[in-house]
Amino acid sequence: MAVTASLTMARLISAPTAVSLSSTALLASKTLSFAASFPLKYRSTPLRFASTTTISATISVGDKLPESTFSYFDPAGELQTTTVSDLTKGKKAIFFAVPGAFTPTCSQKHLPGFVEKSSELKAKGVDTIACISVNDAFVMKAWKQDLKIEDEVLLLSDGNGDFTKAIGVELDLSDKPVGLGVRSRRYALLAEDGVVKILNLEEGGAFTFSSAEDMLKAL
Predict the structure, then answer these.
(1) According to CATH, what is the number of the domain 88-218?
(2) 39 versus 174: which is more confidently predicted?
(3) 37 has which bridge partners?
(4) Using CA atoms, how far apart are residues 40 and 42, in angstroms rounded to an integer?
(5) Which residues make Cβ contacts (< 8 Å) with residue 103, sequence separation at least 6?
(6) Would you place residue 55 in the very low, low, confident or very high pLDDT band (cuts 50, 70, 90)?
(7) DSSP class per residue in 32-66
(8) Distance between CA atoms of residues 8 and 11, nearest Å
(9) Tens of pLDDT, residues 81-129
(10) How far apart are CA 133 and CA 135, in angstroms?
(11) Is 131 a catalytic residue?
């Protein structure tokens, strides 16, 4: 009778464990099967500035840059304005644009690259190197001070986006989490006497071939 009681007790103890393990395995199997059916739906993606539109602009190589006015603060802290004609007439000028001041790629790579290579670019005959952004002049001034830039690169405000719209390189980031609104796509161009000779236009805010190094190679 003791043996029978022991066997009965063993069954009572082992049976729930076996059922529990089986149920857990079945549930796990079904969960994995369900997840495999929807591999991308709930996967978060990092914030990107890239656009899904075709890379194009209303400006192209051989075109004359449209006249436009930019603002900036001079070394004395006075607000000044300049125009496309002022910057390009009888000169070789590099204009490069960024989606926004203080944004990571613009602050860590794009603008610092042109500051670093400014002497080499000017040795190849470039008279003007200007960074353009759809930010107000006060933001551009603060950005310049933050990066400790002197006169290597001129930081220009296209605050209302007039020049950016005129050459057709708007980048709409108004539906992104950071709410940047309408900015400029990233690009770098070389103009001689106002005529575009090189145009490296990125897809959205991508940074693949609009660097100072890329411009040096093209000169």
Answers:
(1) 3.40.30.10
(2) 174
(3) none
(4) 6
(5) 49, 205
(6) low
(7) HHHHHHSSSTT---------SS-S--S--TTPBPP
(8) 5
(9) 999 999 999 999 999 999 999 999 999 999 999 999 999 999 999 999 9
(10) 5
(11) no
The model carries a pTM of: 0.74
Q: Are 162 and 69 in contact (CB under 8 A)?
A: yes
How far is it, in rounded angstroms, from Cα 148 to Cα 158?
21
Total length of the chain: 219
Q: What percent of the chain has pLDDT over 70?
A: 74
Residues 169, 184: Cα–Cα separation, whole Å:
6
Q: What is the DSSP letter of 68?
A: -
pLDDT digits (tens, 9 = 90+) for 61-86: 999 999 999 999 999 999 999 999 99
Q: What is the mean pLDDT of residues 168-172?
A: 95
Q: Where are the domains of the chain?
A: 88-218
- Which of these is catalytic: 65, 94, 106, 121? 106
Q: Quote the tokens at residue 56.
A: 């194009």
Two tokens, residue 122: 């000017």
